[in-house]
Each structure stands twice: as C-alpha cells, then as structure tokens.
## 1
Amino acid sequence: MSASGTNRPDRGFASRAIHHGYDPASEHGSLTPPLFQTSTYAFESAEAGREMFLGQREGYVYGRTRNPGQSLLEERLASLEGGEAALAVASGMAAISALAWTLLAAGDRVLVNHTLYGNSYALFTRGLSRFGVETTVADFTRPDEVAETIDRLRPRLVYFETPANPTLAVIDIAAIAALARAGGALTVVDNTFATPALQRPLGLGADLVVHSATKFLGGHGDLIAGALIGPKAIVERVRGHGLRYLTGATIAPLSVFLLLRGLKTLELRMERHSASALALARLLRGHPKVASVAYPGLPDHPGHALACRQMDGFGGLVAFELAGGLAAGMRFMNRLALVTRAVSLGDAETLVQHPASMTHSPYSPEERRRHGIGEGLIRLSVGLETLADLEDDILQALEEA
C-alpha cells in the first residue's frame, strides 16, 4: 500500500492510528516504522543544507527539532485530533511551556480554569508572572463568569482541561471557545484525560490541543512525552521558537517509537478503561463507606449531559472521597494489593493517588479549598486488569477504611 493510500481522511480512527502516514515499502518493507537514533543529518550538498536552514527546502537538519519517526508521529496525531499539524516534545509540561513561551510576552494576560494539573497551575499562576504575564483564574463550568472575565481582561490565551484533573469537572468546549474567539483569545484545551479517541476539542472550536502523551497515548507507563496539535502556522512557530531555542525539550527517538506503538491500541484501550471505570464508579457510589464519587459517566454527575454530547466515552479516571475523610483514605490506599499507589495515569496498571499531597501539592491549602480539591479526595486511574479482580481489591480495602 502506498503512503497516499494510508492517508484517506475517511478511514476510521483505529485504521488511521495504525496506518496513517506510513508505507512499509519506504523502509525496506519494515512493518513497524524504524527508530531513528541519530542526532544529526547529512546534506546531499552544501547548497541543500543552506536551503534547509533558510526554510526553502524540506528535510532534516538536527535532531532537536525533528526526526523522520517524529514526523510520522506528528502526522498521525494531527489526523487523530483533526488538526492541521502537530508537534511532539519531551513531556506534557514541555508542550504547555513551549506554547506559552512562544505566544506570550510581558504584558499579556491568560485566563485559566481554577482546576488544573498542579504543575500546569504553577506554571500559569507562578512561573509566567515572573516574566510579566498576568494569569487570572475562573470557574469554567460557569460560562457567564468566563464571559465577564474575558470581556474585562482581554486575555491572549484561554486554557483549561476537560475532564479536569482531579475533580473530573466537565467544561463546555464549544461555549468557552466561542467566548474566547469573540474576545480575541486563543483557546487551548488539555485533552490528556479523554484523548482523541473520546473527545476532539478542535472540532468543537478550540484552537489548540495539548497532551501529556506519557498517559493514555503511550499507555504503558514506559515513556515521557508531550504533544501540541493545531494550526500549522502556530505549531511550526512553536517548533522554531518554543522547542528549538526556548526550551530545547526534544522528544527522545525511543519515546517516538513507543508512542507510535501505543497509538495502535488507543481506541481499544480507551474502551476498556472507560467500561471498567464506569463499573468501579458504580461500585464505589453504592458503598456505605464512600461519601461521594465523581465520574462523568454517572447520571448524577453535574457534567453528565454535557459529557454525553461532547465525548464518545467517559474515560478511565474516577475521583472519590470516603466518609471517614483523609485518614480513611490513607488506610484504604495502603490496604490495596492489586491497585498500585503511584502518580500518573493512563497505564495498563490501575493507579491510586492522593491529589492534595501529591499531584496537586503546588496548590496552596487555601487554593485547593477554594477550587474544590478536597483533602480527602482520592484519584483512581483505572487500568486494564480483569474487572472482577479490581472490584475484589477495592472492596477488601474499603473494609479496612
């Protein structure tokens, strides 16, 4: 099959995740795209090298900005998210920071949702302020509040996650993107929790999507990577500035190789993650020792109707609090035998962690209180184990809670 035959936009999600952009004949018949473990590239002539540096000729110059495997990964990610172009980098935070350093300057304003991954929150509310960029926090589940803030501040960027980490609040992408566009701002959505298998923000009006590809996109807990998808002009600007000399956050060739592998099973894995997460959310909600459960797939979740409209599934994350508070939660986590106590998410293994003392410790106690991140909140990243075994492990741990 020729490469052009693999690039048809009418192909299904899984077909594009497996085939898009690659022709085995181009690599001596190798079914799996090769690993390009090189730092630099030879020019066929001095003139060719000069033209590549001037941007007059396509090609590979130096491994910091791109390699052939990375180009394939980026083409595939852009196809899956429905974007013009993509950039793969060394981590999710690298994707966010490279974008911010490229697009923002002293005097610019940013509007972010009050609930973000802890280090994203720290970058926007603490890191950027050192360089004259002002960040304002709002509750993005309240479009009226967002509209008023955009009208008053005229931010350059509007940034949020949905579902949000760790509360799993669902935000109306189309509504927020429309408000941002009317106010002259770019909308950036972190789509790590849902992945393009379940949610495609660009099709709902967002301008740019970022990922911690470490998580569900990779899917096996054996790499660290990030990605940015959106208009080609912006993505290539971030490659030329944000990656090339502002951060130098180059993705490793082996991580590219592993991500291409992970994408092949993404749709199947997200179906399994979502089905098991829904079953465990129902189990937890019905247990007398559980005070509350947050999962978009539950009908009583405040964002359930919205999630049904803008998502194709509800994802693999469940958040809950035990009636006994933090002490009971700690006893519960320590009693788990199959479920692993670890941060991160999206792995084949089910992982459990305590956001207030772990991933969201960059928030102050007051900020966590104000933004709904309870001291007793537990976040469960549901893996791919046999569901009955997960249910048994959770039930026996609840007995000790």
Note: Residues 266-399 form a domain with the Aspartate Aminotransferase, domain 1 fold (CATH 3.90.1150.10).
## 2
Amino acid sequence: MKKRLLLAALFGLPIYAGPAMAADGAALFQSNCSVCHQASGQGLPGQFPPLAGRIDKIAATPDGKKYVIAVALNGLMGSITAQGNDYAGFMPSFKTLPDDQIAAILNHVAGLPAGPDATVFTPAAIAAERAEALTPTTVAEKRKALDAQHPLP
C-alpha cells in the first residue's frame, strides 16, 4: 500500500480507494453528477430533475431502492415527472464506477439537502443489482410501474 501511494504521489496518479478507504460520496457526486443535477442536488426545472429530498423517499421501499440503483447502473431514457415538473431526456450509466463509489454517491444524495450522508445503499446491494443489465428505456418502464404502485415524489 505504501509503495502504491508513493508511486501515485511521484507520478501524479490518482489514488483509487481500496477496501480500507471509504469512498467520499460528496466528492464523487460533485465530479460525476453535479454538472446536471447541480451541486445542491436541486436540478434544473425542465432539464434535470432534482434529487435532493427525493432519493431517500424513493429508496424507502425495496423496489424503490432497486430502481434507484438501476438508474445509477444503467442510466435512464424517456419522460418522467418529478415534483410536478416534466423531464424528457437521458441520464448516462455510471456502471463503470466501482460498487463502493456508486453506493457512496447514492448515500450522499439520499442525505441531501442538508443532512449527513445516509446509509441506505451498500456496495453489496449495488453488486447484486449489477447482475441485471437493463437498457435506459427499460429503467424508465420500471419507474412507471413503481410510480403506479407508490407515487414517486
């Protein structure tokens, strides 16, 4: 580990989090998500839906939690309604990120707007959902089904 840190420092390489290093959800959110959803997670009306104050509510059910993970892993394409505003667009997949980083981002978002990061998502839950490869359009269909069962905020 020391050798890896020294080499990274000498050559200006990024240091990737290992199992002993917790992923920083806030920093990962800023570098991967805030360009669209804004630093606060409030989104832009009509363009990018808000995440703050919603993800924890959606993830309150097992199906909701699976849906949130599916969006992060597979992306989302199609029309959705969030907090009374309509959005039509595309969210890219973040499946290239490791499970611990996706869990950290989702936990950070679940704690927005003002609270500490939540502990709703685990790397194991992300890994389990990774087994089901979905298209972004299929994820949108899952959202519609979930919204029919439990209206989404």
Note: The radius of gyration is 16 Å.
